[in-house]
Amino acid sequence: MKSRFLRATLTGEYKWCQLFSEPGSGSDLAGLTTKAELDGDEWVITGQKVWNSGAHKAAYGILLARTNWDVPKHKGISYFAIDMRQPGIEVRPLRQANGYSTFNEVFLDEARVPAANIVGDRDNGWAIALTTLMHERGANTARRPKFRNVAAGRCVAEAAQESAEYFSTYSWYPQRAGRPDLVPVQVRETGQEHDPVVRQQAMIIATQERLNRWTVQRSIAARKAGRPPGPEGSLAKLNGSLLARLCNRAHSEIVGPAGMLIGEEGPQNGMVNEVLISTPAMSIAGGTDEIQHNIIGERVLGLPKEPGTDADQPFRQVRTNLG
Amino acid sequence: MANDSIRDEVRAWLDEHWDPTLGVVEWRNKLADSGWGCVTWPVEWYGRGLAGSYEAVVREEFDKAGAVGVAAGVGMSLAAPRSSPTAATT
After folding, report:
1. What percent of chain A has pLDDT over 90?
2. Which terminus of chain B, N or C, has less C-beta within 10 A?
3. DSSP letter string over B50-89?
């Protein structure tokens, strides 16, 4: 089983999606309520997942579901590899405020997973999930391969096609990050380069953008040198949200009401409008700013853990939106 | 193992095996069998059991040869990542 999964993932025959977040548990991921019950040699899964990129094309999903309700929330979660093409799974596309549709919601109604497809031990999925989340925070550093010579042959052409399809999901991510590169362009095009307030904003953004880039470079250099990942991921993520917000405000003040125009009529072919609508997602996706604060507080500054009333309570007794 | 010997080894392998006329799945099955697609994976699971620090060298040689690497996507970034995580970027 492991052999088939790994080989087919490497070759691209199996596409995957992530089934972690739920409508009622995003930041409090450990409070998830999708349930998995053992029936003979199969797990039966019922629940709802959300923000699932690529779920409509995926052959398999990495899924978190609750397998034990009588222990605290972090201790009753299991990690599964689930076949997405089965009657118990319905994938519905979500349409975003910025006009794109790159996520889905996934409904699981007695979907089935062979007992062998549990990853790690039963009830021990949380630790594995944390590793996946660390990879997710770093996933944007994934280098987009360049296929210079598509005419070279079938192999290059097929790989280029696959890559274009995959990365099209993320075409709005630069706008989500605020497009700091467009700030000086817009300042000049609107003739505001001598306005001291505008100049100050542009300089703060340029400074923040470089700080961010260097944090990421330090992290990549550390990894290349074989050192384990440090807190840079959370620091860079948090800095990225701050930069996106600064850009949002600057773009909005520089272009004024024209920022409401979408498409070709809008500034920078509508990219400014896309920035204004997309940047709030930066503070949410892949772990909210508040979650990054917690991680930095606990792991970097050594502060006491965030007080929680439900961390030691059996999950069955925790109040959830299940009622 | 020194970077240079890994570099020589991957270059020699690509010289002998890289064939742009293959289908991409057929080619990647060769990567799986040789371990050159995911060098940080264990030898028994399609890798070469190398430290993450060798990935850059291997990637450079693939780039020089214009050779296709393993699949892009959620599978290789989250379900079966190649090495330890790095910081997020924007």
Report:
1. 71
2. N
3. --GGGHHHHHHHHHHHT---SPPSHIIIIIS-SS------
User: How many CB atoms sit inside 10 A of residue A313's CB?
Assistant: 14
Give the DSSP letter of residue A267. Answer: G
Structure tokens that stand for A97 in this block: 């405020």
Distance CA B50, CA B59 (A): 13
Cα angle value A278/A50/A55 (rounded, 5°): 95
| Cβ count within 10 A of residue A191 | 8
Tell me, yes or no, if A232 is annotated catalytic: no
Residue A180: per-residue pLDDT: 97
CB atoms within 10 A of CB A1: 9
Nearest-neighbour CA in chain B from A179: distance (Å): 9
Confidence at residue B88, expressed as pLDDT on a 0 to 100 scale: 38
Q: Which residues of A touch B90 (CB under 8 A)?
A: 140, 177-178, 212, 236, 240, 243-244, 282
pLDDT tens digits, one per residue of A199-209: 999 999 999 99
Tokens found for residue B29? 């099955």
ipTM of the complex: 0.89
| Interatomic CA distance for residues B28 and B66, integer angstroms | 14
